[in-house]
Amino acid sequence: KNYGTLIGWRGQFWRWVLNSLIYSGVSALVGTLVAVMAGYATAKFNFKGKNLAIGVIMGCMLMPAALLTIPQYSIFHAMHLTNTMLSIIILLRLPFGFFLGRVYAQTSVPNELLEAARIDGASEARIFFTIVLRILAPAMVTIFLFLFVATWNNFLLPLMMVSSDTLKPVTLGLYGMVSLATFTDRGALMMGALLGVLPVIVLFLGLQRYWQAGLAAGAVKG
Q1: DSSP state, 81?
Q2: What single DSSP character describes residue 197?
Q3: For a 10 Å CB count at each end of the chain, is N or C smaller?
Q4: What angle, 0 to 180 degrees and rounded to 10, lies between the N-to-C axes of helices 137-152 and 13-44?
Q5: SS3 122
Q6: What does the pLDDT read at residue 181?
C-alpha cells in the first residue's frame, strides 16, 4: 500500500531517483578526474603562482555553501542555465577533492617512477593516464564516493535552481511530498526515503574494498 501511494503521487518517484543518479554520477566522475589532475599537477610540478593557487583553492573549503547560493543563482540565471540538469551537475565540490587528490599524489606516486617514464620518452599526458591513474585508483574511488554522496544529499541548490518536477532529484521530490498540507501518509514517505538511499548503499558496498584501501593510502610513511 505504501509503495502504491508513493508511485501514484505524481508518478515521478523513479524519475527523481534516476535524476539523482545522473546528477551524482556525472558530477562525481567529472569532479574526480578534475580533482586528481589538479592535485597531481600541484604535487609533482613546480610553476609560477603554484602556492597562490593552492591557497585560493584551500581557502574555498572555508566558504559555507549557503553563502554562495545567491551568487551562483545569479550567474546561472544570467547564463540561462536555471531549471536545467547542468545547473546541478556543474556544481562540483572540487576544493575537497583537490585536497585529497594532492595528498594521495604526494604520498603514493614516486618521483623515480615518473622520471623513468620520462626517460623512456613518455609524454606527460601518457604518464598521467596510463601510470598515475592506475596508482591513484583507490584514491579516486574515495574521492568519487565523497563527491557522489555530497551531490546526492544536496538539497539547497536544487531547491533554488530547479522548478520542474521532471528535473528534481529524489531529495527535492520527497520534500515536495512532505511539504503539502494534504499529504499525511508518512508510511509512503518513509518508503520513499528508504528506496531513495538504496543506490548509495549499493555503491558503497560495491566499492568498499577500493574505498578502504583509499582511506589507508598515505597513512604510513615509508
Answers
A1: -
A2: H
A3: C
A4: 140
A5: coil
A6: 61
At residue 87, φ and ψ (nearest 5 deg) are -65, -25
Whether the model pTM is above 0.85: no
Q: Are 211 and 143 in contact, with CB atoms under 8 Å apart?
A: no
d(CA 56, CA 98): 12
Which alpha helices (H) appear in 9-155, and where do they start and end? 13-44, 50-60, 69-78, 86-89, 94-108, 111-119, 124-127, 133-135, 137-152
Place of cell 585560493: 56
Consecutive 10-residue averages of pLDDT for the chain (222 residues):
80 88 91 90 88 85 79 88 86 76 85 89 89 86 87 86 88 80 76 88 82 53 49
- C-alpha cell, 184: 499525511
Q: What is the reported pLDDT for 162?
A: 87
**How far apart, in whole angstroms, are the C-alpha atoms of residue 190 and residue 132?**
44
